[in-house]
Amino acid sequence: MSFADRYTWPERLRAGTLRAMSDDENLWYYCVSDGSVRQGKDARGLDRMGPYPDRETAARALEIAAQRNKAADDSDDDWNK
After folding, report:
1. Helix-strand-coil percent breakdown of the chain, rounded to 5?
2. CA gap 28, 40 in Å, rounded
3. Nearest to residue 9, comparing CAs of 59, 50, 40?
4. Peptide bond before 51: cis, by omega within 30 degrees of 0?
5. Residue-wise pLDDT tens digits, 10-51
6. What is the full DSSP assignment across 34-67?
7. Over the stretch 49-76, which tens digit does the pLDDT of each residue have?
8. Contact at 8 Å (CB) between 45 and 16?
9. Which top-rank group of organisms is this from (predicted)?
10. Which run of H or E residues covers position 78?
11. What pLDDT, on the 0 to 100 scale, is given for residue 34?
């Protein structure tokens, strides 16, 4: 699991691992409408997941989202006990 998978954006910001907005065209995105992985903001915003630092991570976008959702659901369950 990469650093980006384990930490929230504020933690990544403090750690200096978030990229500047001007780097967006060099980052990778997952397109939910057709399942493709693209470099840059080629797909429309509603169809795009990311950005991700590399193609391999973008290809795992749905898996990463599922892991994050499960962690959030588990946290909610713990909170409601």
Report:
1. 55, 15, 30
2. 6
3. 50
4. yes
5. 655 555 555 555 567 789 999 999 999 999 988 888 899 999
6. T--EEESS-S-GGGEEEEESSHHHHHTHHHHHHH
7. 999 999 999 999 999 999 999 999 988 8
8. no
9. Bacteria
10. helix 61-79
11. 96
